Amino acid sequence: MSINISFGGATIKRPGAYSTVDSSGMVPVTPGSLKVLAVIGPSGTGATITPGTVAYFNDPKLAAAAVGEGELLEVMNVAWRHGADLIAVSAAAVTDPATAPTDAEWQAAIDLLQPEEVSGIIPITTQAAVWAKVDTHITLMSNTKNRKRRRAFYGHAAGTSIADIQAAAAAIPVERGLLATPCPLVADSTGNKVVKPGYYMAAAIAGIWAGQESQQPVTYKLVRFDGLEKIYIGQEIETLLEAHVCPIESVKNVGFRIVQGVTLSTSDDLTQSELSVSTLKDDMSANLESYFETKYVGTPTVNGIEVTIYNDLVSQIQGFQKNGWISGFVSDSIKVSRNGTVFTLEWEGIPTLPINNFLITSHFTLK
Question: How far apart, in whole angstroms, are the C-alpha atoms of residue 352 and residue 215?
Fold first, then answer.
């Protein structure tokens, strides 16, 4: 008899543990290297890496020899400077430099990442059409069946207006995407500050995200560049945040700072709109899947197994709290039920939220 279970919007047909998240009970609030990154794009001058393959690097010198000099290597170096460790490279094949790469070549490079274990993707392009391909890939690979739980970090072209940035964000209103702005300035070998495409800024944010614990927000973390193409004023920053764009600001005597780590999701649900909380969902789901799948799938349903599984679930949840992934959980919500060979596990927890605001009122009197 084949397995045929409806769960998480999908029909499960193979053994294993599958996890989904219900955040409908989240109350909107008014005013976390630990992950592998991947870069997709054409390789540089002198590259020895073979297009059509995925290679991993955590040493800039080895990467330089394989990837070649160019934007792909520069973006990897930005991510490394900001905390990333292991970076996968999917080099797009380029048959005609005048059209480098074509839509088909971009798609082939994206598809190469399907079996890989990567969490964050940085496409080395500002083309909305390629972003859409990456988003389709991430949606597919992050679904209940494929369980890869990926997200992308995008950057716009130099000279893009706020209106066009808003439009670009509106075209991909997804939890698993982040759009960074503005473009950074990078000093060249002569000291001149050159505007780089926004995916350099996206790589900085991705590097920070990859190199810290998931419950740590990227909010208010510093990015290391030589300047910003545009210094946003407060009203412009609010406009960008309302458009679900992740802005960087210039702070006197401090540096260039991420204002808030927001995803492209238009939801008021912080488990979707806050990068750190959204990441925590992925980590907890993946941990539960891995634990119960490794320990139980393929073993017999001995007498009292439900109690053993229940106790293990409680232990896992307590571990989440100890690690700072959740601030608490509802004990009575923890349930384990069985239907034949299928065990259903449920629980309710409070994810760790970032501190985003202080509202301070000072009262003074003269006596």
Answer: 7
Q: Tokens for 78?
A: 């930005």
For 252-274, the pLDDT digits (tens) are: 999 999 999 999 999 999 999 99
Per residue in 40-76, pLDDT tens?
A: 999 988 999 988 889 999 999 999 999 999 999 999 9
Domains in the chain: boundaries: 37-275
Beta bridge partners, 195, equal 185
State the architecture of 37-275 in CATH terms: 3-Layer(aba) Sandwich (3.40)
